[in-house]
Target: Carbamoyltransferase
Amino acid sequence: MRSAVNIAVHGRVQGVGFRPFVFQLAQKLSLQGTVQNNMDGVKIYLEGEKSAIEEFLTDLKTKAPRLSKIHNIIVEDSELKSAEAFSIIESDRHGTSMLVIPIDSAVCDDCLREMNDPEDFRYQYPFINCTQCGPRYTIIDELPYDRPYTSMGGFPMCDDCRKEYEDPTNRRHHAQPIACPKCGPKVTLLDSNGQVYEAENSIEVTIRLLKAGKIIAIKGIGGYHLSCDARNEQAVATLRKRKNRPNRPLAVMAASIAAAKEFAEISQSETDLLRSPEAPIVILKKNRRYPLAESVAKGMRTIGVMLPYSPLHYLLFADPELSCLVMTSANPSGLPILYRDDEVFQYLSGIADFYLVHNREILHPVDDSVVQLNNGKLDFFRRSRGYVPDPFTTEQDVTGIVGFGGQQKTTFTIGRNEQIFIGPHIGDLENIETINHYRHELDHLLKWIDIPKTTAVIDAHPGYQVRNVVKEYDFSEVVEVQHHHAHMAACIEEHHIPGRAFGIILDGTGYGPDGNIWGFEILYGDAAQYERMAHLCYTPLPGGEKCILEPWRNAAAMLIQLLGEDGVRLAQTIFSDKEREINVLKKLIEHNLNTVYAGTCGRLFDAVSAICGVTKVSSYDGEAAIQLAELVDENNNFEPYSFDLQKEKMMMINFSSMLKELADDVIKKKQISLISGRFHETVVQAIVLTMDELLMKNPSAEKNVVLSGGSFHNRYLRKRITNELQARGFQVFVPESIPCNDGGLSYGQLAVAAAKRRS
Model:
């Protein structure tokens, strides 16, 4: 029996070879009709035998292209139009956008095979791509995703490329970035003055320069990297000096999994992440051999590794002697990623020796995503290239809500119907360049996603820059959300947790309604509201920001506040070269001058790191805590130090006795890795005991727990706290698809506003 249907497919269905897939499927089943991109996905008109249509719908769901992600399929009966064939028709650009914006994807195996085939006309072409790989989000100017509205619009296709592009049976049918050596972008090697150094054999010459120890700025998919030979200590040290990045670990790109295994331990799950279309940087444990330059990740037991994800990257590894490259973002410290060709010579002058550039414009920069496997689950440090702006689905209408994020590791989040779009990693809003970058990316996504500006959501901190940014937009209302409630709500929303939950939120800084700095919190509630149940006791930060930059000051202040004259003695013994400064800190605390009070996990870790002599002065955010955590093996067991739990209406954890015992161990020159392990376990046991007490006081409380805040990147804390709570019958949830740090804050802000709207 012959029948007809109209099919609407929503989700990630543009720029992923979906129309050719539909065309070939219809041809196989002898169906007639049309397929068309439009502003809310893909529309299909289908007519033919009813059984064939049913088979088509089954295959549509189960055999779609690997980069596609179908959110829903709507099927409606239609009148027969007596179509004689099946065809792909021109996109409809009218109406309100409901599109899922295509993401950038690592080069696929099919393209790599062609690139390495001397008989193929794209042999060694650094911009080879197809519908299953290549740039997407970074080259889009307008929607829907068609070539004229991308930065490839200025490259007219040659006859060979056009033939593939127009062939519905070809892998490159409507692959918008399609190109070849005759008609596509080209690479050029420039010297430090911006003059052409080599045009014809630019990649070969770049390889020779890298082997000779030179530092090359390389234009990639989402921005510029600074690169050098990761085995060359002098080259890496020079890069650090020039970039003024003395200690922060540098990411590396390995030629292959085999090359990465020369210096890192890699599980099968980590291998799958490295080889995935998203191709993130994966934090791996160094192995015992570790032949790379020591200063790539000095003092670390881990290293950030990625595989080549563009054809250009693969070509740079043509020489087997060059198997691993430092590949770090080219932006100077504190500035957003560099991606405009006219900016790199200004900002990288005196840093890069040469520049490997190309003439395909980057319209939207994206940093590399950074992940690790933490207690068996995915843990995002940074969610950007390969993942952004792919939406999350939600169970409520979030249209018109925009979360503006915080001050550090900033992102923004936009709600449309039952979709939540998290923008790319922006960075710290501490200079005009980063703030302008934030505005630029927010404006584009707001235009593409096309929503009424109903509710802007900001952090409750009165000094965050987003307060000024939000004034530039015409929202009907502005809602403030407490920092740690946003962290808690993000995890609740991600996992669609019903009812209420405890939130154990450990991080560095969050403004509390009492005017103090929170960051070691146990909350109870849901996305709409919360109650603070317990926290770390407050200690002073005399000099404010200076205590964060110089953790020894924070440590001394904590000892003085918690242990009195005994603490002064301990501080003067441990920081023996700072006696005068310690006396000044003591007076500031006594007279409450230029002093704020904080109870945060980040500042606690900073203080212990300084007391242990690990990091007394930080050169990057989180250095003290990271270096202290690197000393601890999450698979070991440690005896905790003592601590006190003050069981008042709101419980308070006091680590005075722990600090006294720990400081004494340092003075006695006990092994620092053991001290760090005991400290970590003390934090675990303090939280677990507090949870036991809270459950006794609140026996009807639901036994859901979310763990969030940047301190939960710490492998030991996440594993031990999860295991201890699960042993007590709690169901434990952790962020897996969004960062637990402030990169997930905007998502949580939106979740809070949506829940309040619903309640």
